[in-house]
Amino acid sequence: MSDAIRLDVWLDVACLFKTRSEAKRACEGGKVDVNGEHAKPHRAVREGDRIRISRPFSRHQDVIVRIALDQHVKKAEGARAL
Questions:
Q1: Residue ranges per domain, the chain?
Q2: Which terminus of the chain is more exposed, N or C, with fewer CB under 10 A?
Q3: 60 DSSP 8-state letter
Q4: Residue 7 — φ and ψ, nearest 5°?
C-alpha cells in the first residue's frame, strides 16, 4: 500500500473503469474531477479525495477515496475497502 497513487491506476484498481487506459482517456477527456478540479491521469490520489466521474446520460458518480491501493484485490475485499 502506498501513500499516493496515480489517478488512472486507482480508478482501474477500484473497478470504476474496466482498464487503466479507459480511465486515462476519461481523465484526458475531462470526465473526472478530483476535489472539484479537472484531473489529469497522473494526478496523485490520496485518502479523503472526492472524485466525480461524468457518466453517460448526464449522470455522475461521486466517490470518496478511503484507501489508496495500487494493486488489484478480490472483488469482495475491494467492496469493503473502497
A1: 5-81
A2: N
A3: E
A4: -60, -45
Q: Does 9 have pLDDT greater than 50?
A: yes
The DSSP secondary-structure symbol of 6 reads E
Cell of 33: 474531477
The total of other beta-carbon atoms located within 10 Å of residue 23's CB is: 25
- The total number of residues written for the chain in this structure: 82
pLDDT of amino acid 69 = 76
pLDDT tens-digit map of 18-30: 999 999 999 999 9
Task: For residues 79 and 77, give the distance between their C-alpha atoms in angstroms, rounded to a whole number.
Answer: 6
Tell me the CATH architecture of domain 5-81.
Answer: Roll (3.10)
Can you tell me the mean pLDDT for 57-67? 92
Strand ranges (DSSP E) for the chain? 5-6, 32-34, 37-38, 44-45, 50-55, 59-64
Torsion of CA 53, 50, 67, 22, to 10 degrees: 20
